């Protein structure tokens, strides 16, 4: 069976909700990430067989967003495309689907990733198509309804996150401390120029002039435990999740170029990393925050590895409690987990985050001279996905 390799990748900065990227459609951001990923990997447009992009908030985006993104990237009409919606796991599932297609021999090179503009999520008017005979209508925020709301328990995802924190014995103080760590480490990575290696600047127009967005907008280097402690719990009166220890809603995109090794050699390109395998699990919907741990366990068992055999982990910080709960279940050393901060600081554009954590993981392993790493992510309705990669020294 062919071996799948990662030839390169790139992402946009992650913008704040209503921030600098608010006027960029998700497909534009996706196109920017695709183009940059190809340029960073040294792959020509003609070598691309297919584009697979995750996107959750597709309402109002138009037909097949992945194809729109491919065209924004300048790729030809002959390049096929697929759009994936696995909620927060969409960007990571795009890569694992690409891996499966490549290993099956149905393509030689695929660009895979995810994109989201939460700022551009529209509102819907349920029951309006055939008219409201009398009385008031209803307006539904599709960002919340399609992205942040449990379809099975009819509650915001924060409700499940708060219950998980309680079940796992994770205090408010621990969550705030992890959030502070996320911001501090992300800021350190920005100052060191590490994220600049994976970010492609985005040009935006304002009323006054053009602006170049070069870094993630949600990182708060000036936050503190006192500031975090002052925030009120969200959705649950006596809960522990706040706006400070959860990520914001964000805009951004990430893409990776994946191919079979034979194609990489034919193109004369040295892979950034090898995809060794992946796994996914499903659990009861309310247990979504802990699904990454069980996906990781399944993946490790498949490869006869222990959690300690892995050099680095990137587990998406859907909340600080998610990182803490999964670390606790797996017994991971904190110094191996989200070493450059996570989504609490960087942001969580839900369709893009899975691809972002994999790209960040590969970049950090390369900086360290190689090793094995796992990127894992939870998603609404309690599915967890994990990918195992190796960067050769």
From TrEMBL:
CDD domains, sorted: thiolase
Occurrences of domain Thiolase C-terminal (ranges): 269-390
GO molecular function: acetyl-CoA C-acetyltransferase activity
Record PROSITE patterns: THIOLASE_1, THIOLASE_2, THIOLASE_3
Domain (Thiolase N-terminal) ranges: 5-259
NCBIfam families recorded: AcCoA-C-Actrans, PRK08235.1
Protein name: acetyl-CoA C-acetyltransferase
Species of origin: Thermoactinomyces mirandus
């Amino acid at each position: 069976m062919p071996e799948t390799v990662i030839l390169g990748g790139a992402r946009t900065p992650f913008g704040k909700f209503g921030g600098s990227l608010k006027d960029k459609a998700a497909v534009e951001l996706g196109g920017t990430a695709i183009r940059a990923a190809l340029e960073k990997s040294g792959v020509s447009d003609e070598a691309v067989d297919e584009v697979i992009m995750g996107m959750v908030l597709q309402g109002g985006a138009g037909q097949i967003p992945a194809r729109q993104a491919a065209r924004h990237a300048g790729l030809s009409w002959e390049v096929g495309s697929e759009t994936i919606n696995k909620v927060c796991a969409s960007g990571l599932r795009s890569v694992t689907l690409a891996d499966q297609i490549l290993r099956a021999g149905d393509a030689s090179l695929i660009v895979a990733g995810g994109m989201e503009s939460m700022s551009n999520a529209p509102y819907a008017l349920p029951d309006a198509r055939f008219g409201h005979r009398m009385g008031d209508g209803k307006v539904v925020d599709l960002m919340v309804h399609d992205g942040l709301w449990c379809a099975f328990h009819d509650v915001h995802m924060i409700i499940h996150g708060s219950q998980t924190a309680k079940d796992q014995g994770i205090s408010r103080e621990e969550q705030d401390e992890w959030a502070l760590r996320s911001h501090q480490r992300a800021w350190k990575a920005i100052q060191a120029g590490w994220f600049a290696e994976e970010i492609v600047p985005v040009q935006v127009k304002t009323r006054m002039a053009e602006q170049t967005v070069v870094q993630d907008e949600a990182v708060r280097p000036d936050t503190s435990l006192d500031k975090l402690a002052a925030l009120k719990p969200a959705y649950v009166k006596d809960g522990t999740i706040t706006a400070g220890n959860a990520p914001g809603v964000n805009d951004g995109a990430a893409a990776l170029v994946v191919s079979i090794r034979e194609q990489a050699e034919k193109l004369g390109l040295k892979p950034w990393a090898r995809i060794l395998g992946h796994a996914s699990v499903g659990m009861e919907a309310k247990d979504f925050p802990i699904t990454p741990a069980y996906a990781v366990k399944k993946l490790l068992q498949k490869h006869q590895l222990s959690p300690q055999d892995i050099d680095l982990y990137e587990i998406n910080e859907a909340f600080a409690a998610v990182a803490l709960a999964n670390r606790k279940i797996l017994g991971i050393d904190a110094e191996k987990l989200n070493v450059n901060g996570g989504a609490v600081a960087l942001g969580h554009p839900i369709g893009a985050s899975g691809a972002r954590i994999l790209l960040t993981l590969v970049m950090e392993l390369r900086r360290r001279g190689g090793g094995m790493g796992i990127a894992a992510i939870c998603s609404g309705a309690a599915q967890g996905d994990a990918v195992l990669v190796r960067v050769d020294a």
